[in-house]
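Dear colleague,

Thank you for sharing your sequence with our group. We've completed the structure prediction you requested, and as agreed, I am returning the results in plain text so they can be pasted directly into your records. Please verify that the sequence below matches your submission; if there's any discrepancy, let me know and we will rerun it promptly.
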Amino acid sequence: MRTFDGGKLVIASHNAGKVREIDALLRPFGADVISAGDLDLPEPDEDADTFEGNAELKALAAAKASNLPALADDSGLEVASLNGAPGIYSARWAGPEKDFGHAMQLVWESVKDFEDRNANFTCALSLAWPDGHVQTYLGKVFGIVSFPPRGDMGFGYDPIFVPEGYQTTFAEMDPSAKHAISHRAEAFKLLVNACFR
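Please find the predicted structure tokens below.
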């Protein structure tokens, strides 16, 4: 087990919403966050068949390209009645334009005739170093798919996901409330306990 000792940390993402969320979670731990987009790093092909595999692939690519520790997230929505789809292909359902309005419509069209609307968000977080060392942590949050989309404070599929025990979608929640219960927050708890002092 290796720990992060502070200083620059690359977030291996070009997704501004995701970078903002990770930055907010890491700020208390002295990480000087910079995104892969800011460094103009190329985005590797995400061709692994699990969230963990894709997170590790992205973290290692960013760490080696920047010569800095890098943190990558691979996350997505898994719908029970769709056998876990869109899953690792969650971003691809949004197409090259990253149109999540279209992606949410696709999810709804696929699930609306099923009684079971159970779903979960899964997040794999991988922290990698330029020497190739990598550690990965997995978090999940369970809930249901709800339509039409509601709220404008989240990103991705947040407007159609209502977590267990709540009446509001992730996109209707204040970001601090979402950060307290999200799949990313669960993975971060594990990451921080293991890697940050």
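Summary note from our side: The helical segments are 16-26, 51-66, 100-111, 175-181, 183-195.

Kind regards,
the structure core
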